[in-house]
Specification:
alpha/beta; single chain; binds adenine; 223 residues; 5-stranded parallel beta sheet; 9 strands
Length: 223
Amino acid sequence: MRIDIITVFPEMFRGFLGESILSRAVRAGKVLFRVVDLRDFARDLRRTVDDRPYSGGPGMLMKPEVWFDAVESLRTPEARVVLTTPAGEPYVQRKAEEFAACEHLMFLCGHYEGIDARVREIVTDEVSIGDFVMTGGEIAAAAMVDSVVRLLPGVLGGGAAATANESFGRDGLLEAPQYTRPPVFRGMSVPEVLLGGDHAKVENWRRGESIDLTSRRRPELVK
Ligand code: ADE
């Protein structure tokens, strides 16, 4: 998979993409990242990417032509062009799965007060990572990239099992609590059923805990 990230802050991605599972995925040839500085597509010596909004109002807007030039120079026919915006559709695990099946993803990180609305003409998806507003789309893009790359075959150890039982997995519920050794820590015991090794009982317990936790925290996820 190829992932392009277009941003005015390319440095923000250096550490993030260079660490841990993401860098391993790159070295294993599962994913190829290109972080592109939007200012490289500016048309003036000062590398301007923003301008004042028509009809006034506070702040600056990102200019359409730099985004069009950037996207048109990088896109392939099969590319999904994803604009990060708090006004986008909510990003959920199903969307991560959909993106993970793509050959080429492009993330457009919005900034300042917003983007000229005509940029929406060249995007295929507008996505928000939650009902809160950040100063820019970089962290949203990073969150999506992480959640997509970990789904690519061979990236996580343990194969498909590694992502099968986690929260928002196939049953759409939150994951049951997990424990490791020691069996008692500061007076807190690991639930008896997990020490027994009866697989069916453990599955049953997990399912119950899962439904319980989801009903309390995210009742809208329990059908
Ligand atoms: N840019 C600023 N806030 C955002 C959010 N919540 N999701 C996606 N992009 C954003």
